[in-house]
Amino acid sequence: MDKLPDRKYDLEERTLRFAKDVIAFVRALPKNVPNIEISKQLVRAAGSVGANYIEANEALGTKDFLMKIRISRREAKESRYWLHLADGDEQSRAVQTRLINESMELTKIFSAILRNSQKMTLRR
To answer: What's the chain's Rg over C-alpha atoms?
Structure first.
């Protein structure tokens, strides 16, 4: 029987892929003043999703873990905001839509982690 994959690392890989995909999307955007400023914010937020999730996995306690997961969720929401503001061409819109959907999925995942972790904390 095969060992089940460690979900922690699946989400680490997924958040890393999200950040890399955002960087590729930003590189393809037209270089105008609004997009340059939006791109800076977008890259920071998208990278922060995974970075904070990794920190959550190394948390010193439950309180620290929950705080890092909240930050990951917040950064996923912020990424979605900046993605909506980015102004690309027709070709980049499909990628933009996919990234917006992924940011929503990540937000839902982090919300579920928070809910489940808080339930487990209350049971103790």
So the answer is: 16
Q: Which residues contact 30 (CB under 8 A, 6 or more apart)?
A: 87, 88, 89
pLDDT digits 0-9 by tens, 19-61: 999 999 999 999 999 999 999 999 999 999 999 999 999 999 9
Q: Which residue ranges form the domains of the chain, and what is each CATH number?
A: 7-123 (1.20.1440.60)
For 18, other C-beta atoms within 10 Å of its C-beta total 21
Q: Whole-angstrom Cα distance, residue 92 to residue 21?
A: 12
pLDDT-based confidence at residue 8 (cuts at 50, 70, 90): low
Distances (CA, A) of 85 to 5, 48, 54, 124: 36, 19, 27, 43
First to last CA, the chain: 33
- Give the tens place of pLDDT for each residue, 54-67: 999 999 999 999 99
